[in-house]
Amino acid sequence: MSDVALQNITKDFKAVTALKDVSFSINDGEFFVLLGPTGAGKTTTLRVIAGLTRQDEGSVLFDGEPIDNLTPADRDVAFVFQQYSLYPTMTVFDNLAFPLRSPMRKTPEAEIRTQVEEVAEVLRITHLLERKTAHLSGGEMQRVTIGRAIVRDPRLFLMDEPLSNLDAKLRESLRVELQHLQKTQGATTLFVTHDQIEALTMGERIAVLNQGRILQIGTPEDIYDRPATTFVAQLVGTPRVNLVKANRADGTLYVADSAIHLPIPEDSDLPPSFTLGVRPEDMKPDKEGDFPGQITLIEPLGVETILHIKSGEQTLLSLIPGLTDLRMGDEVRFNIVRERLHYFQEDGTRISV
Asked: In the CATH scheme, what is the homologous superfamily, with its name and number, of domain 242-344?
């Protein structure tokens, strides 16, 4: 396995800049997630690392050594695609064995059988080894695709949204299996996704990418609790963070068009106008609460409930555990967890308070 570094990678496609000065590093054995919306530049990043796309500027390093002049084969990376890249007329065994039968490797057949059977056992597909891949379900095909990548113990795994074509239950199951696999094998992995749940639950560290630029790199806790921009704050968290216009006057913070006003944190340097971020779980209905509101919508989800609370002209989301006796139109009072508020400049960048 290897540690990996991207240094100031830029890639242009005619009039579109896919990547702009992208830099980050992945530690040896780390599960690193690249999170961003469609068109952010995630797949281009993977292709540059794999050598399938040549960057215009910058360098890719493995263990501190530039690999920009190496062919894709010489980089020894395993690429797991969103679409299943299998040979439909071949058995599962032969699909798994295919990378080991490369003329470059010259792996003995006995060793190939041993390695394939070990991988099949780990992925719980031993019973499928003699079946043609054309006759597999989506989840089985994705397991085989992952197996074909891990069977040869590459320097780096590149995974391009490998779970996005699966149904929710199977996606959750494979998410757990991939994490277990990565931990037990100590495999250096770069996992690309647009799904914030995958990113927060799987990544040891996350890089948020948008429009070809890295906005923030940190642990899942960093990304969620200390988002660097309003874009990052909105990208992670379900339901989405409340973002409202606010201003300060005489030591008090006022939320525009509402009854919400809070004391400004001591020693803070907030500008006169800014954006306030409140996570829904930090909006707490309370009979003795400081602020009045009215329930305009209730979304019961079983384990938790989303409340839409209107205060003045502002409607904010509140996330509470379990079910509720509240009904639409009810008058409520609520509190806001003040130590967990987020403050942003009008351009969307975080204000440290």
From this structure: Nucleic acid-binding proteins (2.40.50.140)
